Model the fold of this input.
Amino acid sequence: MGCGLPSWGALVAAAHQFADEKMPEGADAAQAAENLASKLPGGAEEFAKLVGRALYSVKSLTTGAYEAFNENLLLENELLSAISALVMLSCRRGHGTVITYNFDDLLETYLAERGLFAYPHIEQPSWFLNEDVSILHPHGFASRRPDVFPSSKTITFTALDFDRQTGQQSNPWRAKLLGLLQSSTPLFIGLSGQDQNLRSVLADVQQTHVSLSAGHPFWGVRICTDNDAHISIWENRAVWCERVADFKEIPKLLMAICKRSAELMTKSKLGIK
Done:
């Protein structure tokens, strides 16, 4: 289900390459990224630009040179197609909201190809621009169209970045995420739960979600595979984990949800019980 973007390790390696820094052989990617960020004279802003450049570059297996990723893979991606269908369901009710911890602009691009105005929010507070879909990027955003959507000045990438953010009650992003999650039934896709800042938010929502008064055992749903190693992290925070056999099944499940929702909506509008 890949979109053609580099893996985490390949992204860190490319960032070193573009910075003309040698990545230590066998080094932990997260620690190597933190060390690289600390060396750059332009600080966090230079590092964000560097990662943005590396993000949309893929190393050729034949030449070893870095090339732009193949955007044709984007429109063929089944998961993006299924997420787009879910977002369209929300838009029928007026507006859609997506929270993504990715830096890329692929979802914005995909939705635009489907005729939706998807606006990336890169800081909080921010204005609502009457967009069809609000896409929130709490960890930062690297835009390929800076003349249309600016990139964020910084990104949350290294362990030090996460350490500085975790548990900060006054952080505007934390307040925004809490407000959204406390009053909705969110669907989590592609998140492991290893992000300590996210875990802290989940723990707060568990204690404050609007469904508490109704006695619901869970306030959100996460889709994962049967052999997922992080199920307890989520269910201990009252997020149900819906299991599928493998990742290829996730788009099918999302499309089944869309189909069921459309059937219920049709019956409701026609007065069929």
The radius of gyration is 20 Å. Residues 146 and 152 are 10 Å apart (CA to CA).
